[in-house]
Amino acid sequence: MEAIKTFCITMAAALSFVLSVPLHAAEVKVLDDLDKTIHADAIKDRCSRYQQASLALQKSLDELNTDEEISSIFRINKVLAQVAQSEKMMARTSEELAELNGYLTVNKEKLVTNGLEMFLPLAKLNDVGYKGYEEALKAYLAAFNDMLEYSKSNMPALRVGRKAEMDAYDNLYSRYVAATDRQGEAYTRWSQFLLDFFQEYPLLRPYLEQKPKKEEMS
Q1: Residues 6 or more apart whose Cβ sits within 8 Å of residue 150
Q2: Does residue 59 contact residue 27 with C-beta atoms inside 8 Å?
């Protein structure tokens, strides 16, 4: 028992000595470099996730923008599923962008301390420009969904041209066209914002360019 007590006292003294020894400059630099690498990798990872989500969203929207006639229940169901997929991808894109912005906000002082202030402008992406595009896109998808659901539920009446159903459909179609126009205008403004952003911060372009992952290209 006395031997165990002596061993514990010796270990405590040794640990106290180790903790009291100051780190050498080289060791401090290694820790600083490690902290810098951790933050840089975290930002790059969030940028990559936002990239891929944005790319998936655009791909889903492109599949909606076809000239194929929607004149059957089968086709309507297919497009409704695509609308739902686009809504899911939009939510994911917004979540990834919000997560990137949150990381930059919470760790702002640490990023500056570690010489990573070049990444701070990325927070501008989650600003009014994107919010406007997001709201316009939500309205577009909602209007598209409403029109499709009505067409699906009233297909027989629409096929024979019954006035009440045709008038209701025309109203929904007008809303859809207006929402499509607003979404297109919002997308143009958002695209211009990104072009201006890349011109102002060219070093950030590689972290935001939409490049599909290898498995998506194969």
Answers
A1: 168, 169, 172
A2: no
- With tokens 């702002």, the residue in question is 108
Q: Which residues of the chain have pLDDT under 70?
A: 1-32, 67, 210-218
- State how many domains the chain has: 1
How big is the chain, counted in residues?
Answer: 218
- Please state the pTM of the whole predicted model: 0.79
Among 41, 80, 48, 50, which residue's Cα sits nearest to residue 64? 80
Cα angle, residue 82 at apex, residues 77 and 87 outer, rounded to 5°: 125
The confidence score (pLDDT) of residue 195 equals: 93
Taking only the tens place, the pLDDT of each residue in 28-47 is 444 457 789 999 999 999 99
Q: Residue 97 class from Cβ within 10 Å (0-12 exposed, 13-18 middle, 19+ buried)? A: buried
Q: Is residue 3 part of a domain?
A: no
Strand segments, DSSP code E, in 10-104 are: none
Which residues constitute the domain of residue 163?
22-212
Is 17 inside a domain boundary?
A: no
Cα separation, 94 vs 168, whole angstroms: 33
Other residues' Cβ atoms within 10 Å of the Cβ of residue 51:
19
What whole-number distance in Å separates Cα of residue 194 and Cα of residue 56?
18
